[in-house]
Prior knowledge:
This protein is α/β, with parallel strands linked by helices and about 350 residues long. About 20% of the residues lie in helices and about 30% in strands.
Amino acid sequence: MRIRLDPWPVDTQDGQLxxxxxxxxxxxxxxxxxxxxxxxxxPERMRRILVVDGKPRMEAxxxxxxxxxxxxxxxxxxxxxxxxxxCPHGSRQAQLQGVSARRVLAYSGDAPLEVAxxxxxxxxxxxxxxxxxxxxxxxxxxxxxxxxxxxxxxxxAMSAELASPLxxxxxxxxxxxxxxxxxxxxxRPGEAGRAVVGYVKTLHTDYLGADRIGLLTALRPGERTPVxxxxxxxxxxxxxxxxxxxxxxxxxxxxxxxYQHPLAGVMRLEMHAPEDTDFVPRGVQDIADLSGAxxxxxASQPHKDPRAPQNLIPTAALEQxxxxxxxxxxMVTRRIRAHLAGQYGSRVVA
Length: 350
């Protein structure tokens, strides 16, 4: 028996590797030859890369009483979505874009709530304004899920707004976009036809099977697998055909140290696939070809980030900026307590 280390820190939500087999069908889309494909570099035509990510946070759980004995759950939450705008050729400095906090009062009751405005004692601290948002159900974690959903919707909208259109022609020589969006996590509905690549940092699902996964351990930095195609939600039992088609491929960012598992340093990428899946659109092909060079350039180092190399350098910078935008969690909690005390502290319950 050989014991290998999962490189990600144990206090993260998930490990870097779990590999649950994909229940549906996966098809070759680029070639029938299952072998490593070298990177072809980043063409001059591509001038702009945007890395998009979001960060949610629950700030307080609430219990609502309508005065007639009916109880419901709610919560104060916040989220930030932003982007890092950079040049893939290093000709200009990277810039943060759109990093601002949005606050939500998520509730499950039938009666609509008003906007909650938390005024500070110090006028320089600013007003915290929580917009009401109703969610279905009465689960304790419903408010957290509502904040997460709102964040993902904003991520999707920002990615679609920033990315160039992506022609779906098979032979268009101008199909490579000048602006590419790298989105943390899988691509999402509504981004089809745009140059959006989802990068999945954790390998939780095995799309390859035992006969093909060995290629991932043999990849050298910058190399990738051929492009594959699958249907999201396909269970492989004939009961459902899946919701939409996606392309996916794997890229190695760095060699794994001998003491880590051999898939350390491998990242999975995905893009939307058109319904006509007899070919890989030229734009997707070109993006796959440059993905190795781009991601190796953006990959982080273990001495800088415990989730290296998959947690890209722009992603880590964006996470820090988003944390600052939401403010100190401890200070926000104090203001929530002061707000509730001011609203209800003088009331006497019989």
